Amino acid sequence: MSISTLRPQTETFNPLMEVRGLNGGPDSLLIFKDMDLRLPAGLSALLGDEGSGKTSLLRLLSGDLVAKSGELRVLGVDVPLSTPTPSWVFWTDLRLPMSDESTPGQCWEAFAKNWPTWSEASQNALAKALQLTPHLDKRLNMLSTGSRRKVGLVAALASGAKVTLLDQPFVSLDQASIRVFKEILTNLGRDPQRAYLIADYEKPADMPLAAVLALQAQEACRPDDMG
Questions:
Q1: E-assigned strands of the chain?
Q2: Containing H/E element for 177?
Q3: N or C: which end of the chain has fewer CB within 10 A?
Q4: Dihedral angle computed from the Cα positions of residues 198, 203, 209 and 211, in that order, rounded to the nearest 10 degrees
């Protein structure tokens, strides 16, 4: 697998989140080597082709994937980068790889236990806006792919995280839900104390972006090359 280096297209912002010297990747692969990242408040896009490392990067930033090394600061506060526990940075696999017997409410309860900033009011408002209310008593294995992903999107935005990482959030959503979710994100993105990073192949249309970040593949690297 090749190394991917994040390159911001603008350097004119003050970072809400800053990463220095990130080294890591899935399993023993070193996809990112000595990578620096600066993310402003508001909405930003992370762009890359299939296999460029978008999901691996989001997992590394959230602690879901343990980095080999690196430093993370959010709003000027040092946050453990290589500790796989919820902190100020939220990411989840929107396919929701958990028990199919769970209802959406049980799924959100599981997230809320790890997030003291969780907002039940936001959870309920988001569920209503995304038309999940009629499905709250159903098991996840009874829901469509789009509805399952909506459950994950509600979790992301109800978490209260300072930095929210969204991995292809519009996949499998109907056009009406996409419009609603874009409106919600646009409103949330006005908060100067929050950052939202949308990973996808192309820039989301009709959304004000504070920064656009592009992953670019470079020469392959093995873990032994860390130096």
A1: 2-8, 17-24, 32-39, 42-47, 69-74, 77-79, 89-90, 163-167, 195-200, 211-220
A2: helix 175-188
A3: C
A4: 80
CA distance readout (Å), 119 to 27, 106, 124, 130, 157: 34, 15, 9, 16, 9
Residue 35 to residue 146: CA distance in whole angstroms: 34
pLDDT for 219 equals: 43
Question: Locate tokens 């499998």: which residue?
Answer: 172
Q: What is the pLDDT of residues 83-133, one digit of tens each?
A: 655 669 999 999 876 668 899 999 999 999 989 999 999 999 999 999 999
DSSP state, 223? G
- Alpha carbons 144 and 153: distance in angstroms, whole number: 14
What helix, strand, coil percent values describe the chain, rounded to 5? 30, 25, 45
pTM metric for this prediction: 0.91
* Dihedral (CA of 158, 207, 186, 130) sign: negative
